[in-house]
Amino acid sequence: MNAQAAAEAARVPLADIDVSDPELHRRDVVTEYLRRLRKEAPVHYCANSAFGSYWSVTRFHDIMQVDMNHRQFSSDGTVVIDDQFFSGGHIENEKKRSSFIVLDPPHHTSRRSAVAPGLAPANLLKLEAGIRQRTQELLDSLPVEETFDWVDNVAIELTMRMLAILFDHPFEKRREMLHWSNVVIGFPGDGVVESWEHRNRVMTEIHEYFDRVFKERRANPVGHDLITMLAKSEVMSDLSPAEFLGTMTLLMTGGNETTRNSMSGSVLAMEQFPGELEKLKANPALVPSMVSEVIRWQNPVSYMRRTTTEDVELQGTTIPKGERVVIWYLSGNRDEEVFERPDDFIIDRPNPRQHLSFGFGIHRCLGNRLAEMQLRILWEEILPRFDRIEMVGEPTRIHSNMFRGFHTMPVRLHRKTNA
Questions:
Q1: pLDDT digits 0-9 by tens, 171-195
Q2: What distance separates the 2 farthest-apart alpha carbons in the chain?
Q3: Are 363 and 75 in contact (CB under 8 A)?
Q4: 43 and which of 208, 218, 272, 317 could share a cystine (Cβ 3.0–4.6 Å)?
């Protein structure tokens, strides 16, 4: 518990608590506000926020209940709090670019089925050797006993190398996808997007690229990459150009924003809980359970939003039809009723994959096995090379209520004595 942040959260009248405020997330104090909601108002109504009114669901089992009930809690149209976020408030333009994450059955089912084979364990096995080789090359190129930024030099770089493999994108142009991903989730004034017109120009550029590549792979479907998999799918041939763009941008941003933050979160966790690093070095067989614990503890996606399709009762509270309902995975993963010492990073927890970070039900994260594989490979290659990744300054967090990530993280590598 952060005592100072807990005192701050305790001073705010319960009705005025607004956990959608991105500043609470940037300052990393939001977990104390969520702790108070779990205890005092697990189904909480916020009447006034920058995004309008919304309901928060903060306990583990309630979140599961909502996530698995797509009939009363719909994803149709959007899964973010802010209806005005995209395209300067013209959300109808974004709906035309819909991906399966913002669809309910039956359209969700067929669209997701077209993508799923590309991220199935059998296909991931074909990618593992390439991801491991690029991880080894990157780690061997890093400076030792010198300060550098882990986020840019490792987390982002490694994620871009993975996306280049996944999409069979030109390796030398891998950072192009970083820019595209940042624009997709960006807005004017965020340091990336200059204006809504600028964002629309880049979105057109992204669409033209993926449309050209898709047609090339359809004409010559010989690879094992994700775009070739989609090109072989009959379902994808029925999509409009805007719907195809929606699917590709979801895969690109999903792969970028989540995995890189887990990679950085793993370094922060090891710094704050050095006993767990020693435990891992003594028993590298704990790497898979450590990976699951990182994903629970770091929680790279803080929430998903649903919209009620009818009046729904939850925990004795009636939520009217048409309301925004925000399920806070970040809170559920710190639920004291489910996890012992939930704020602690413990790499040998029982049932380590029992967490909410990938969601539940029909919208469970399709790339969960890929994310776990990347983080596993990273630490399997770190352990024989480095004794410690020392943080030499405070990390800076991004200004986002949805992605729990980092701008910078200054570190210094210490080589393993016998490496």
A1: 999 899 888 888 887 777 777 888 8
A2: 63
A3: yes
A4: 317
Amino acid at 234: E
Q: Which of 342, 270, 310 is nearest to 59 (CA)?
A: 342
| Contacts for 8-12: CB closer than 8 Å, 24+ residues apart | 8/32, 9/33, 9/35, 9/36, 10/36
Q: Which helix (H) or strand (E) segment is 328 a member of?
A: strand 324-328
For residue range 143-154, list pLDDT tens digits in order. 999 999 999 999
This prediction's pTM: 0.91
Task: Report the alpha-carbon distance of residue 295 to residue 289 in Å, rounded.
Answer: 10
| Angular region, 404: left φ>0, alpha ψ -120 to 50, beta rest | beta
C-alpha to C-alpha distance for 131 and 165, rounded to whole angstroms: 7
Integer Rg of the chain from CA: 21
CA distances from 216 to 210, 211, 212, 238, 246 (A): 10, 9, 6, 17, 19
Cis peptide before 106 (omega within 30 of 0): yes
Query: Over the stretch 162-171, which tens digit does the pLDDT of each residue have?
Result: 889 888 899 9
Q: What phi and psi values does residue 191 have, to the nearest 5 degrees?
A: 95, -10
Angle of helix 107-115 versus helix 241-257 axis, rounded to 10: 60
Q: CATH number for the 3-415 domain, one of 1.10.630.10, 3.50.50.60, 1.10.860.10, 3.60.15.10?
A: 1.10.630.10
Domain ranges of the chain: 3-415
The total of other beta-carbon atoms located within 10 Å of residue 211's CB is: 14
| Residue for token pair 């950072």 | 175
